[in-house]
Batch of 2 targets.
Target 1
Amino acid sequence: MLIGISLITLIMMHASPADPASIRYGLNPEVSGSARAQFRELYNLDKPVRTQFVLWLKRIVKLDFGNSFIDDVPVIRKIGERLPATLLLGIISMLVIYLIAIPLGVSSAVRPNTLYDKIMTVVVFVGYATPTFWFALLLIMFFGIHLGWFPISGMRPWYVEYYSFFDSFKDLMWRLVLPVAATSLVSLAGISRYMRSSMLEALHQDYIRTARAKGLRDTRVVYKHALKNALLPIVTIASMIIPSLIGGSFIIETIFAWPGMGRLGYEAIMNYDYPVVMGVGVIATFLTLLGLILADIMYAVVDPRIRYE
């Protein structure tokens, strides 16, 4: 998977009409044609795509992504500086999604076809149909510009060095509100619907009728017996959310000027910075595959029937 996505990324970058040498030097008349040719030779841009790919694979084995075309900084260093911000945004978004979506789905399932259930259904479907970038712009306009409640860009202010640890942490959490809200909307809506459907199916099983016939309290029946079995499909769906969070970070981090890996990848694409684009693609793919593996492990934890002996 890593090799295939890397090859597709390299082919797409070479299919673009721009030339990295032209982007690097622009219209500077002091840079001669021979200097541009030397630049292409230095970064193997004069070789066929398959040759470039093989050379790139040889470097990847040593975790050498090369240097950026723009500033000659090692790609692995640039990604290392941006990756924590992306992981922070993604992990908090996942927590928010599950902490809100699961109670919403359960509360709708235990009261099916009531006014509350119908209202939640409408609200959730509106959220599911809302484009992420449009919702992010609405949040910026209303809560950031009109009301002035939250910062609209950046991860920390320039004067953060004058903050205490507590003030710095509080400022970071405050700046996370809008990006996390924009990132979580669609996935939250989808998970809550899946949770409702799964919970409804679990509540109609024979073991639930047996538990209620024994006189167990309704809360115990719902949250101990039905919920655990209803969570099985939700754990599987986590493997679908992780790629969307990583891919969506390109849009969200660009809109909110969040200094993460997604914004780094967007800037690299705009500048035709092949090494950075390839490095970001490999790291994003690795995180996605890691998320899929963790989802499989969690599935085995939740469902003892599929654990390996």
Target 2
Amino acid sequence: MSRTRHYRDLIAWQKAMELARLAYEQTEDFPNSETFGLRMQIRRSAVSVASHIAEAHGRLNDTEMRKGLGSGRAALNEFETQTELAKSLGFFQAGVADTLLELSSEVGKLINGLIGVLDPSPR
């Protein structure tokens, strides 16, 4: 795969950053009892997605990049699970969780697209 010059050029990273910003904004009004609970977990997992994409871009070969993107996809699954739980507990205002989950799904598709164009054979 021909690499972009910088991870910031990856649409997957850009959308993951958007997801992280939105996660921070939308968890601000969680109950104070969730300061170190779901609020922090949602924020950390969202930031982790973008961080793993950036880190994967810096890998020296496609096999290593696939591993890093896989970690980003795993963090996205954590984010979605935590968002679903917060939604079921009524921590989000109407429609917010669905917006977060839709953006998360978009990021997941972009990550899968990146993984799909990488050479799967180890070097």
